[in-house]
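Lay summary. Proteins are chains of building blocks that fold into shapes, and those shapes determine what they do. In this project we predict the shape from the chain. Here is one chain we studied, written as its sequence of building blocks.
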Amino acid sequence: MTMRELLQHYPGAQRALFRRYHIGGCSSCGFQPDETLEGVCARNNSLPVGEVVEHILASHEADLKTQLSPADLAAALKSDSEAKLVDIRTREEYDAVHIDGAIFFTQELMQEILMKWDRRALLAIIDHQGARSMDAAAYFAGHGFENVRAVRGGIDAWSLEIDPNLPRYELE
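And here is the predicted shape, written in a compact code that computers can read:
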């Protein structure tokens, strides 16, 4: 299996590889999309492929627990006045289409979140299709947020499942 195929099936695999083995997080430890997992393991201290696969699968299961479905998010936003939805897409994407009540993410907001927000309240992170939001959720979880979740499928899934009037879009 190539790394491209692996990341399509397990989007959090790169984060998992970097966290445990320091693989794929920077140019010095990166990999090419057409490399195989076996090849990546071989050139990184001959890591046992089976062990690496087990770690990726376990990390994938943990990622699933960090995700929140659009339906669960909609219910939480209606019932929990402390719940917050932070949109980490670009300014252009946010200005073109966003969920009512979503807060656009900036560096200033990040400082406010880290310094002032309740670490027990729901902090939902949304992006376009749900890939980058997992990285942001991991970041805030690492800073002590106990109820941080990435919205599964991002705003694209929200449009399909919750609000079909919200325009969908493709990035070029």
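What the prediction tells us: The chain has two domains: 3-64, 69-161.
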